[in-house]
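Backbones bend. Shown next:

***
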Amino acid sequence: MTQIIRSRLQLVSKISGSCCMEQNDVMRLFYYLFPLTAVLIWSGNNVVGKIAASEIAPEAISFYRWALAALLLTPFCFKAARRHWSVIRQHKLKLFILTLLGMVIYQSLSYVAAHSIPATNIGVILALTPLLTVLISVPAFGISVTWGIVCGVLISFYGVAFFMSGGHPATLLSGFGQGDILMLVATLSYALYGVMVKYWKVPLPTWVFIYAQAVIAACTLLPTFLLGSTDPITPRSAPLILYAGILASILAPALWVIALNKLSAHNTAIFMNLMPVFTTLIAVVLLSESLHSYHYVGGGLTLAGVILSQSWHRPLRKKAAHGVPNPEHPALNLNRS
C-alpha cells in the first residue's frame, strides 16, 4: 500500500513538474515578442525618417522627437531624477557624451541621410551596428579577436559595398555617396554609444537614464532647431513626430529593457539582425521601393557576417582562449534609441 501511494505521489510530482516546464516555455515564447516588437518599431522608424525627409527638416524632427519624449516621461521620471540628482551631476559629462553619440549625432545624421538614400539602405547599414560594437569592444574591453569577428567583418563589409554599389563594388573606389557615408558615420556613432554605456556604467535606474538623455538631447538640439529650419508641426508631420517620439523613443526601449531582464542579452540582441529585413519589407509596402538582385545578395552577406561574428567564438589564437567574447558583452547588449 505504501509503495502504491509513493508511486502515485511520484507520478503527480512528474506531472506538476512537466506543467511548470511547459508554463515556463510558454512565458519564454511570450517574452520573445518584446524584442521582436521593439525591432519592428525601430525598423518602422527608419521608414518614418525617409517619409519625414519630404515633410520636415532633419533638425526639426530630431528636436521635436526628443522634446516630446522628455515631456511625456517627466510626470513619471522627474521625482526619481531629483532623487538621483547627485549622481546625474557627478556623471554629467558622461551623460552628455552618451547623448551626443546615441541621440544627437546618430539620429540627426540618420534623418539627413534619409534625404538622399532609400530606407532599404538605411536598414542594411544599421545592420552593421552589432559588428562595429564588437570591433570597438576588442580594444575597450580586451576581448580576444575570434575567427567569427574576422570573417564576419570581411563578409559584412563586402556585403555593404556590394549593396551600396548596386552590385559593382569596384565603382566605390571612385567615391561613396554622401547619404551612405552619413549613415555609416551614424551607425559608428551608435556602436560607440553602446560600448561606452557598458564601459562607463552610469549608476542610474534605466528609466532615469533614458529620461536624462532625452532631456539633454532636447536641450542640445534646441540651438540647431532655432538657427535652422524651425518647421512648424503640420497634420502631415505630426504622426511622424508622434511615432518617433513615443513608439521609437519610449515604447521600444521599454520593451527592449524588459526583454533583457527576462531573456539573456545574447538571445535579445539576435533580434537586431531582423532590422534590415523588416525595414526592407516596410519600405517596399509603404514607399514602393523596388528590390533588385544586389539588394538580396548584399543584404544577405551583411546579415550573414553579423550572425557569424556573434555565433563563432573560436579564438584566433589558442593562448587567448580565456578571452573569448561572453554572450553578455556589450556588443550583444544593445538598447537602440
Q: What stands out?
A: The first helix runs from residue 2 to 31. Residues 320-325, 327-337 have pLDDT under 50 and may be disordered. The chain is about 75% helix and 0% strand.
